[in-house]
Write a structure and sequence with these properties.
The complex is a heterodimer of chains A (600) and B (590).
Chain A: H1 14-20, H2 24-56, H3 62-118, H4 122-135, H5 137-164, H6 166-220, H7 224-277, H8 282-308, H9 310-324, E1 361-368, E2 378-385, E3 390-395, H10 401-409, E4 416-421, E5 424-425, H11 431-435, E6 438-441, H12 452-457, H13 465-474, H14 478-483, H15 501-513, E7 519-523, H16 531-545, E8 549-553, E9 562-563, E10 565-570, E11 573-577, E12 580-581, H17 582-585
Parallel strand pairs in A: 3-8, 3-10, 6-7, 7-8
Antiparallel strand pairs in A: 1-2, 1-4, 4-5, 9-12, 10-11
Chain B: H1 13-21, H2 25-57, H3 66-109, H4 122-164, H5 166-194, H6 198-214, H7 216-221, H8 225-277, H9 288-308, H10 310-321, E1 345-353, E2 360-369, E3 374-378, H11 385-392, E4 400-405, E5 408-409, H12 415-421, E6 422-425, H13 436-441, H14 449-458, H15 462-467, H16 485-499, E7 503-507, H17 515-528, E8 533-537, E9 549-554, E10 557-562, H18 575-589
Parallel strand pairs in B: 3-8, 3-9, 6-7, 7-8
Antiparallel strand pairs in B: 1-2, 1-4, 4-5, 9-10
Helix pairs in contact in B: 1-3, 1-10, 2-3, 2-4, 2-9, 3-4, 4-5, 4-6, 4-9, 4-10, 5-8, 5-9, 6-8, 8-9, 14-16
The chains are: A alpha/beta (600), B alpha/beta (590).
Bound molecules: adenosine-5'-triphosphate (2 copies) and magnesium ion (MG) (2 copies).
One adenosine-5'-triphosphate sits between chains B (118, 354-355, 358, 361, 379, 381-387, 427) and A (480, 497-503, 528).
Chain lengths: 600, 590
């Protein structure tokens, strides 16, 4: 049946098969073991028939059947062992493929970068990477070997049967030949509904994950019941979709089973009639009777495994789309190195990156346009960052400050224009090398589960204890560390949940300080800090910032006392103003004069 | 299963989960009955065909065979439809049960969020709701029903064989019992060797994956993404190692079942041959007994499989029900008082500890906000400002002291009632991955588009939303990632404004905004909520100009209070320096 259903994503998806190539030895092993099992089955049937013949017709006692009984036992032993070996080989077929797939998917998802991830649903991706790939086990470990066996075993068995009794063989061939027809019809429908089912399942996962995160919000607004209703709906949709998938699968096995039953019954019937006529001996008849269902069995099992692996195949489709689709709107690849695999990384001719410490970093006519937005966020922006320059980026909320930093980081690829480091286009260089010279304090830092110290050291695992302590002091976390019984080894919870917003931000700052890099990008590093703390941090950090190229997005004074230039973003364009205290020079006016009474 | 009232821990996790799923018992029984009938058909078909052939070989007159022929046809034709019906019925019942388990999980997490599940990872909880729940499908499908089916079939087959030939029945019974027992023993041995914990590993993997995806920007920027990915995949490798060993023992179980089948076939053949030689058995029965044995084992096989998976299922069930063991941080009183009418809120000598052995986040804090007053709370980062909100919203309970609404302790009120009075904007408010409008409308079911637009405009989102081609229908992305920081904050604020609660608690609504926007926003919010009680947490001195009172918090205590209107801050708009000065004075005083 396998070759019969060839179109597009038929029973053997070429994209998946290519991946299975890595473990074809195990696949071949699994098939070989399966064939040995089939041979043992034939032996078992023949021996059983011979024994019955001897007892029934030859009136033999136990003593005369002993050799046959021993042979029968041996046939069972071989079958048992081949079942064992088959299980082990099947597992080996899938394990490496699924592990590799998991690694590739995650590397790719991370590699596609924040802009791409922003449009994806974390719960859905995570479920694809875990449960979805686990489900592929059914495809590689079960379906593939059975599909190959389904093509081979019936032929072997029929060859045996036809030698003994061509009439039964004809009945079997005719009934078995109908099976692929059913499989084509039902298989296509099954594939369609399975991918809908996977959509529902991963959608439910995304919903559940999102509800978990949003529960405090829902509770605060008394809408936890709305969340429950959402989940209930997702449940119901999943159930309906699953049932319609299953109906097809069950229908297919009903059809196959009925065919097999009718075929077997017909065989038995005609065997009986010919026994009555005396044209057949009972041993052969019995052997054929035992073998007849086994002709259908591999086909039926392949059909069943095909449906059982539907979820895995549907998940794989989604995963392979992420992996293979070069058109995924990718923002920019994380590493940009060839190692990152497919997609945009491929066309990069990696150039040697000029030393960021001594080269000017330039934005050259950079334009960034986000889908679904009427106007570009950055529209032909030119900006030169000389080594050691301190530049503030200001502008209304939503004016593109973070986007500008994201372009500098290589997270957002400009639709037009270039980022240049010295003479080289960043697009031609390894982004990984570039980022090794850049420290970034994001607007919304992400902490990972672990201790305070783990989170700080994340930016520089080689930092000495003294350096960590200094970083803690420099970003004003010493007070917090002193207050905590476990100090630096206090766990921060998932996402830094056990810290206040300002503390999280200062950890991000500490991460930056731990890295000795020439370029520092600060995205509103003091948004959650009071002015007193801001002032003291500014003093503490001044020596560290000295000599580094600093770009700081800020609404207030921020961390840089005196900036060399202030860049104001207005409607995607930049207006530059000269050196001064940020608070005083921003075109938004000196501090204090824009009180709450300013008219709109 | 359903309707029995028992304490939740009277049973093992599996039975607990079965009870939570509360499968429709009638459907369940129907499914089992259909499955058993189909299984008996399998055994009967094999036995009857054997008898048919044997009899035919003895060349009796044709009419003596018609009954057997009819039986073979009937059994062959009814098996398929029976199994089809059984599967439809039992799968539908099982899927329904799984849905109920998921809802139950949600219901357990809800009263515990966020404080009670703080130690749990969202990715792990997600794995429980998906992978673990899905595993339990097998409990409903392959656990209970096949066991029942297998048991009935085995008993009936052994019984029938015994009637024909007692020694044959004995042999078959012994092989069935021996085979299943050995298979279970192997499964038990594996569990002893590998221990439990595949579910936990899967949960950890899912949680790590989620963390990797969420923290990806930071990790990539620091060049640590590859290393981190390896760390995530460490649990994948461990799962892999276990799966490899498991495939050995799974194979062994399969082999044992085949061996036992062989023993049963050979054994029944020997006993039947003996009996025929002794004329205790008609000779045509020679093929019937071994074929019946083959059939019986075919039915028992899935049950052996179910038994060998029992440990996994128990673990999955345990992972689910253990959520119910977590403390509920804030419990509603049994006889809750009706919600008072007033909107005066406050804290009295409030002491809050996030961990019982941790530092005090609130250390005897007093706060009193009279109805309609606008009070700003300022103080250094980590002072405990957001903790005040956590207590007022009843997300965390106090160690001592009390939180008050209209003079009544919040302990006496239902949490949900209290929250209907309070509109809240968190510091890092969660945006749902729907549209801008959808996020705002969460606050009030049935809000009209105009209401939503008005709230958005009060939150200074108007011109920006007007500039968007899709307007309020623009999607915001995961965690609002397709918006700027300040836009996220304003959407959250619009949500709180839409709620229209008489008390508004805003946790740094302006921290991510530029000065003019922030100023307009504070101005408009104060105007739009005229008459509401307002607690405004802020770091921006400029925000303090229009409030009635400023409360300075440090180290979990109030260290100063002043009203900006009374001091030098009025008139010239330079509220900032006065606030700073007041705070410094206050600090010096303590
Ligand atoms: N991934 C994205 N998809 C679509 N639009 C986006 C995306 N990221 C940002 N934007 C839009 O681009 C504009 C600029 O966003 P950006 O985050 O750069 O602003 P910002 O100046 O940093 O603002 P803020 O001060 O509020 O942080 C905003 O209008 C935002 O909605
Ligand atoms: N869930 C939690 N578990 C343990 N400790 C916590 C938790 N939330 C906050 N804390 C700690 O309690 C203290 C007060 O935190 P809170 O969030 O109230 O500060 P805050 O005044 O709002 O600070 P910020 O201005 O930075 O937001 C901090 O030191 C913080 O580390
Ligand atoms: Mg920003
Ligand atoms: Mg706070």
């Amino acid at each position: 049946m396998d070759r019969a259903v060839a179109p597009a994503r038929g029973p053997v998806d070429p994209r998946l098969i290519r991946r299975a190539a890595a473990t074809r030895h195990y696949l071949i092993g699994a098939v070989a073991v399966g064939l040995v099992g089939t041979a043992a089955l034939v032996a078992q049937a023949v021996l059983l028939g011979a024994i019955v013949q001897k007892v029934l017709i030859g009136h033999a006692g136990v003593a005369r059947t002993v050799p046959l009984l021993v042979g029968l036992a041996a046939a069972f032993a071989v079958r048992g062992l081949s079942a064992w070996a088959g299980e082990v080989a099947a597992h080996r077929t899938s394990s490496r493929v699924t592990s590799t797939l998991r690694r590739q998917l995650l590397a790719r998802a991370v590699g596609l970068g924040p802009s791409w991830l922003a449009g994806e649903r974390t719960g859905e991706l995570a479920t694809s990477a875990t449960q979805g790939i686990d489900a592929l086990d059914a495809y590689f470990a079960r379906y593939l070997p059975t599909a190959v066996l389904a093509a081979l075993t019936p032929v072997v068995l029929l060859a045996w049967i036809v030698a003994d009794d061509w009439f039964s063989a004809v009945i079997l061939v005719v009934t078995a030949a109908v099976i692929p027809l059913f499989m084509i019809l039902l298989g296509l429908e099954a594939t369609r509904s399975a991918s809908r089912q996977w959509e529902r399942l991963s959608g439910l996962a995304a919903t559940f994950y999102d509800l978990l995160q949003g529960l405090p919000t829902l509770r605060a607004f008394g809408r936890a019941d709305a969340g429950r209703a959402t989940l209930e709906r997702a449940n119901r949709e999943l159930r309906d979709e699953t049932m319609s998938t299953l109906k097809v699968a069950f229908l297919s096995s009903l059809a196959l089973e009925t065919l097999a039953s009718v075929g077997t019954a017909l065989v038995a019937l005609f065997l009986g009639l010919r026994l009555l006529n005396g044209t057949l001996d009972v041993g052969t008849a019995l052997a054929i009777l035992v073998l007849a269902p086994e002709v259908y069995l591999p086909l039926r099992r392949a059909g069943a495994e095909f449906h059982a692996s539907a979820e895995g195949r549907a998940a794989a489709e989604r995963i392979l789309d992420v992996l293979d689709d070069a058109d995924v709107k990718a923002g920019v690849m994380a590493g940009g190195d060839a190692a990152q695999g497919t997609g945009r990384g491929d066309r990069r001719h990696v150039r040697l990156l000029p030393d960021p410490a001594t080269s000017t970093v330039r934005l050259d006519q950079v334009t960034v346009r986000f889908p679904g937005r009427a106007v570009p966020v950055l529209d032909g922006v030119d900006l030169a960052l000389e080594p050691g320059a301190h530049v503030a980026v200001v502008g209304e909320s939503g004016s593109g400050k973070s986007t500008l930093l994201s372009v500098l980081l290589g997270f957002t690829e400009p639709d037009r224009g270039d980022v240049r480091v010295g003479g080289a286009r960043l697009a031609d260089c390894s982004l990984r090398d570039w980022r090794a010279g850049v420290a970034w304090v994001p607007q919304r830092p992400n902490l990972v589960r672990g201790t305070l110290e783990d989170n700080l050291r994340l930016s520089n695992p080689d930092a000495t204890d003294a350096e960590v302590v200094r970083a803690v002091e420099r970003c004003g976390l010493d007070g917090l560390v002193a207050r905590l019984a476990d100090g630096m080894t206090t766990p921060v919870g998932e996402g830094g949940l056990t810290l206040s917003a300002g503390e999280r931000q200062r950890i991000a700052l500490g991460r930056a300080v731990l890295r000795d890099v020439p370029v520092v990008l600060l995205d509103e590093p003091t948004a959650h800090l009071d002015t007193g703390r801001e002032d003291s941090l500014r003093e503490l950090l001044a020596p560290w910032l000295e000599g580094r190229t600093v770009v700081m997005a800020a609404h207030r004074g921020g961390l840089v006392g005196r900036v060399d230039r202030t860049v104001t973003l207005v409607s995607g364009q930049v207006v530059e103003t000269g050196p001064g205290e940020l608070d005083r020079v921003g075109p938004l006016g000196p501090s204090g004069t824009l009180g709450a009474r300013v008219p709109r | 299963m359903r309707g029995t009232v028992r304490p939740p821990h009277a049973h093992g996790p599996l039975r607990q989960v079965l009870r939570i799923g509360a499968p429709d018992l009638r459907r369940f029984l129907l499914g089992t009955a259909l499955g058993t009938a189909a299984a008996l058909c399998t055994v009967g078909l094999l036995a009857c065909s054997g008898a048919l052939i044997d009899k035919a070989a003895l060349r009796p007159p044709l009419y003596t065979l018609t009954l057997l022929m009819a039986a073979v046809q009937l059994l062959a034709l009814s098996r398929g439809p029976l199994r089809y019906a059984e599967r439809l019925v039992s799968h539908d019942a099982a899927l329904g049960a799984l849905g109920r388990v998921r809802l139950w999980l949600y219901d357990q997490v809800t009263p515990r969020s966020p404080a009670g599940v703080a130690g749990w990872r969202n990715g792990d909880l997600l794995a429980r709701a998906t992978a673990d729940v899905d595993l339990l499908q097998d409990v409903y499908l392959r656990g209970v029903a096949p066991l029942a089916t297998a048991l009935v079939t085995a008993v009936v087959t052994v019984g029938a064989v015994t009637l024909v030939l007692p020694t044959g029945g004995l042999v078959l019974g012994a092989c069935l019992v021996g085979g299943t027992a050995t298979a279970s023993a192997l499964a038990w041995l594996r569990r002893r060797r590998l221990g439990n914990g595949e579910g936990a590993l899967r949960g950890a993997l899912a949680a790590d994956v989620v963390e990797l995806l969420v923290a990806a920007p930071d990790l990539v920027a620091m060049g640590r993404d590859e290393e981190y990915l390896e760390r995530v995949l460490a649990s994948d490798a461990e799962l892999e190692r276990r799966a490899r060993r498991r495939s050995w023992s799974d194979g062994a179980v399969a082999a044992v079942v085949v061996f036992a089948t062989g023993a049963a076939v050979v054994g029944t053949l020997v006993t039947a041959t003996d009996a025929i030689a002794a004329h205790h058995l008609p000779s045509f029965m020679i093929a019937v007994l071994p074929l019946a044995a083959l059939g019986a084992f075919e039915v028992v096989l899935p049950a052996a499989d179910a038994v060998s998976r029992l440990a996994d299922h128990t673990e999955a069930a345990g992972r689910l029900v253990s959520v119910a063991d977590l403390d509920v941080p804030v419990v509603d009183p049994a006889d809750a008082a009706p919600l008072p009418d007033g909107t005066r809120i406050g804290l009295e000598a409030a002491v809050l500890r996030y961990q019982s052995d941790g530092p005090r986040a609130l250390d005897g804090l007093d706060l009193d906000v009279a109805p309609g007053r606008r009070v700003a709370v300022v103080g250094p980062s980590g002072a405990g400002k957001s903790s005040i909100v956590n207590v007022l919203l009843r997300f965390w309970g106090l160690e001592s002291g009390s939180a008050l609404l209209d003079g009544m302790s919040l302990d006496q009120l239902r949490q949900d009632d209290v929250r209907t009075r309070i509109g809240w904007v968190g510091q890092d408010a969660h945006l749902f991955p729907t549209t801008i409008g959808g996020n705002i409308a969460v606050a009030r079911p049935g809000a009209t588009p105009d209401d939503v637009a008005a709230a958005a405009s009060d939150a200074q989102l108007g011109p920006w939303i007007d500039s968007l081609p899709l307007g309020l229908d623009t999607p915001v992305g995961e965690r609002g990632a397709q918006l700027s920081g300040g836009q996220r904050q304003r959407v959250a604020l619009a949500r709180a404004l839409l709620a229209g609660a008489p008390v508004l608690v805003l946790d740094e609504p302006t921290s991510g905004l530029d000065r003019p926007t922030a100023a307009r926003l504070v101005h408009d919010v104060l105007a739009a909520t005229e008459g509401s009680t307002l607690v405004l947490i802020t770091h921006r001195d400029e925000d303090l100009v229009d409030v009635d009172e400023v409360v300075v918090v440090d180290d979990g205590r109030v260290v100063g209070r002043y009203s900006p209107g009374a001091g030098d801050g009025t008139g010239d708009g330079d509220g900032g320096s006065s606030a700073t000065a007041a705070r410094r004075e206050a600090r010096a005083a303590t």
